[in-house]
Amino acid sequence: MSILIKNIKQLLQVREQQVDILRGKAMANLPILENAYVYIENDTIIEFGLMEDFTNIEAEQTIDATGKIVLPSWCDSHTHIVYAGNRVNEFVDRINGLSYAEIANRGGGILNSAKVLAETSEEDLYQQSLKRLNKVIALGTGAIEIKTGYGLSVASELKMLRVVKRLKQESLAKIIPTLLAAHAIPEDYKNDKQDYINLITDELIPKAADLQIADYIDVFCEEGYFSVEDTDAILKAGATYHLQPKIHVNQFNILGGVALGVKHKALSVDHLEELNNDDIEALKNSDTMPVALPACSFFLGIPYTPARKIIDSGLPLAIATDYNPGSTPSGNMNFIVSTACIKLKMTPQEAINAATINGAYAMGLEKTYGSITRGKKANLIITKPMESYFELPYAFGDDPIDTVIINGQLFK
Ligand code: NIG
Ligand code: FE
Fold first, then answer.
1. Mean pLDDT in runs of 10 for the chain (412 residues)?
2. Domain-wise residue ranges, the chain
3. For Fe(3+), which residues are the binding ones (predicted)?
4. According to CATH, what is the number of the domain 75-361?
5. Is 324 in the pocket of ligand 1 (CB under 6 A)?
6. What share of the chain is helix, strand, coil (3-state, %, to 5)?
């Protein structure tokens, strides 16, 4: 199958050479071509350039993108889209005055989702998750990380990983599975946290590694969840099985998880709504990607990650949805790009870089996704007609997408 997209008003994120990660000032640079074309064959970007240099290419399908923007599909490096049911009642409880912590303390929150997931069949869990996955692909996401963490037992965590594996096999989108067994202390272990940690390190990690069913390991390093010491022990066990960390840190409190993540060569440290100078210093001279999750701040009403401080310190930044039933029941990356501009004060160029190439890096996919580069995967968004790509973040809450191409195939 070959597709030619012609007369593109603006082609974004055009990289002649491979780029791995964009830091600091480099994030301000979003290379674009005006009046351009892209040619793809099967699942690969073969050629692109200016229309004025276009010499006839015969394609099986030609798309006229007059007035439209084309860009690489979004790389959402942090989600929890495999879950059962929802937590809409807790949403209403929060409106009526309860905090996220108060809801969790009375058995709601992650434990509530774990209970529902345990009662849901694997097939049903798969169907519910597939629906969410297809919805976010139609919103422009072409590569997505999916975490476990609503299992909280060996059986249920493996059930979640099998569902992620099936999604990975059956979807055109690129899917990266992460083991987040250390998401909360399960009810049965509430007085024996160490026993649960041992279960993760001695049983679950070796099993998941043996099945080759997880690419990364995650821990919710937070007061009332897992301490820095707990996190250290879990990441050590993960390292034995070559599971690199991508961790939840600094969502509500600064415990020292950022420096710990850097010490363990974490691929990413995510959330960072709270961030101090020691955290910034720890991230300098590391290859760890900080990841902001602005829709979580929007939904919970907690502080936004200080993106300006991060970028102006010369660090890189990625942005992701955090799609999950408790803190972010939305997987719309277009909204994330808007929120990054409106609330994190990122420029449109920085936000789009953070949602494409840097998001790809935060999943270990920067060689194959996240930019318009010859040889990369043909995962593309074609927008509705607009004056310029600045309208992507500007028209917040809109669905700006006309056509989605995933793995060289028309999805929408
Ligand atoms: O990233 N912070 C921990 N995990 C999720 C929320 C999980 C939930 O509430 O179900 C997050 O916000
Ligand atoms: Fe999360």
1. 98 96 98 98 98 94 98 98 97 96 93 98 98 98 98 98 98 98 97 98 98 98 98 98 98 98 98 98 97 98 98 98 98 98 98 98 98 98 98 96 98 94
2. 2-72+371-410, 75-361
3. 78, 80, 248, 322
4. 3.20.20.140
5. yes
6. 35, 25, 40
